[in-house]
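Re: that backbone. Tokens:
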């Protein structure tokens, strides 16, 4: 059986989902070996800012608000 976790990197609880995918455990519950967890991610990608004016030049500290998706970085061990 496959369990698909769509857009799993859009939640702040991404670490819990990564642990679930890797260890097949949640708290004290251990999932059956025939269950496969698959995580689908959104890209960390900016909106094209050519149409936006932020003062006279683009200020990088405000760029996070222009992400296409509100995504969380996930641990390197999940790659």
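Recovered sequence:
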């Amino acid at each position: 059986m496959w369990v698909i976790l769509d857009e799993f990197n859009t939640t702040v609880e991404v670490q819990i989902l990564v642990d679930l995918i890797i260890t097949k455990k949640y708290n004290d519950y251990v999932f059956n070996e025939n269950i496969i967890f698959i995580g689908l991610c959104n890209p960390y990608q900016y909106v094209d800012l050519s149409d936006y004016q932020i003062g006279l030049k683009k200020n990088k500290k405000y760029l996070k608000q222009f992400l296409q998706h509100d995504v969380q970085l996930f641990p390197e061990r999940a790659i």
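The chain has a mean pLDDT of 76. The CA atoms of residues 13 and 72 lie 9 Å apart.
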